[in-house]
Write a structure and sequence with these properties.
By secondary structure, the chain is an alpha/beta fold. The chain is 38% helix and 16% strand.
């Protein structure tokens, strides 16, 4: 449903937002002592590694000398020369530049694999084997390693070696076909959803694998597919289709199993409204001083309300047009009726509740101020505090090669002079 009365207008540059400034600190430490070797680039793998780093793991990020992670070049937008896409998924890591396609670089990588609990890669099965970062190669160096592969289609099957991006995964999954107006074209979700979901799946699988390894002493292979992570996200649409063969179609978000669950216009800006139970249905009509409608027999269950959805939607829409958004949101909040604004990103960033719960902040570390979206949950009543900012390319190379790979200064200098680091 398009909003007809949103008078906020288009915005090319959002409103300035002053986020709380957070200094680097200890943060969550539940995975303290776990070392993760992150060989991935772009979004999904780096996001998985960042989540593990947020939980306290030591993340060693391996990057190409000179260029680094592909996402470092994604822009504009840039902030002081850094890609903001890159800094969004790479905090709590140490960066090492290493060309492991060369023999000496490969030997250094082997030393790092032996010293790591987890390795994350996002190459196809064929490429993993070519560069000796596949499961078999890694297990030959450390038998109990947890090997995480994040690819478009998984490590087996006819599509396993095909290239894939988030956009491709969204198309395969069905989510694009269900997103957009009924008469419009399919639409991509407004964020790299398949990447972020796959990254979350990978981090979850690693945490579970670490728990099992602590009991069994055995390593694990984790095979994550962008397409499958994105498709799993649609479970609540896929299973009803499989059970009934009733094919869901694009509707502009107006076809929920909940009879009233969509966007409505108000006198100024649109709101979302979800009347998901009989009790909420009645509270809504009591709040708008029309209790008789809430008790009508024809509307007494969600199934009956779905049958009469067009007339109900029309009735509610005419009512909500009489007052502005903030009037209705205050009223519905008091009545415990689920409703909310449709924020632009600048409005969301300025939301005081998000800031107070530690979800949005500016990280002040190493003389840099970097905007961040936090871990997104609290543990023991506390939001997470980042330990490190997104790393500059190769900033920890010498430290890690000396302390973990056990190279001396002359060996490190030789690697640098040959362009391997």
């Amino acid at each position: 449903m398009h909003s007809l009365n949103d008078d906020r207008g288009p915005s090319q540059a959002g409103k300035p937002v002053e986020l709380p400034v957070v200094c680097a600190g200890q943060g969550f430490s539940l995975l303290s002592g776990v070392r993760v070797l992150d060989l991935s680039t772009s979004v999904a793998g780096p996001y998985a590694a960042m989540l593990l780093g947020d939980m306290g793991a030591d993340i060693v990020k391996i990057e190409r000398p000179g260029t680094g992670d592909d996402a470092r070049a994604w822009g504009p937008p840039f902030l002081e020369g850094e890609s903001l896409w890159y800094v969004s998924v790479n905090r709590n890591k140490r960066s090492v530049t290493l060309d492991y396609t060369k023999k000496r670089g490969r030997e250094v990588l082997e030393a790092l694999i032996k010293a790591s609990d987890v390795i994350i890669v996002n190459q196809s099965a064929k490429t993993q084997a070519k560069f000796h970062v596949d499961l078999a190669s890694c297990r030959s160096l450390r038998p109990d390693i947890i090997h995480v592969s994040i690819t478009g289609f998984g490590l087996n099957g006819k599509r396993s070696n095909q290239a894939c991006y988030d956009l491709i995964a969204e198309g395969y999954s069905g989510v694009m076909d269900l997103t957009g107006d009924a008469e419009g074209a399919p639409q991509k979700i407004g964020a790299p959803a398949a990447d972020m979901l796959a990254g979350s799946d990978a981090a979850f699988a690693v945490a579970a694998a670490l728990v099992d390894r602590a009991k069994s002493g055995k390593g694990h292979s984790v095979d994550i597919s962008l397409v499958e992570s994105m498709t799993r996200f649609l479970s609540c649409r896929i299973v009803p289709y499989l059970g009934t063969l009733d094919l869901p179609r694009r509707s502009g978000g107006t076809d929920s199993v909940i009879a009233v669950y969509q966007v409505f216009d108000t006198a100024d800006s649109p709101i979302t409204l979800g009347l998901g139970s009989d009790a909420i249905w009645q509270r809504f009509w009591n709040a708008v001083e029309a209790p008789d409608i809430g008790h009508q027999h024809n509307y007494s269950s969600n199934a009956k309300r779905r049958e009469r959805r067009p007339e109900i939607i029309k009735l509610i829409q005419e009512l909500l047009l009489a007052k502005p958004r903030d009037h209705w949101l205050a009223l519905f909040s008091k009545a415990r009726v689920p409703a909310g604004p449709i924020y632009r990103i600048d409005e969301m960033a300025a939301d005081a509740e998000f800031q107070e719960r530690g979800l949005l902040y500016t990280l002040d570390a190493d003389g840099r101020q970097v905007p961040q979206v936090g871990t997104g949950f609290q543990i023991n009543g506390q939001a997470n505090t980042p330990r490190m900012p997104p790393p500059k390319l190769g900033v920890s190379t010498t430290e890690i090669l000396r302390d973990i790979a056990k190279l001396n200064d002359d060996e490190i200098a030789a690697l640098r002079s040959s362009g391997i680091i």
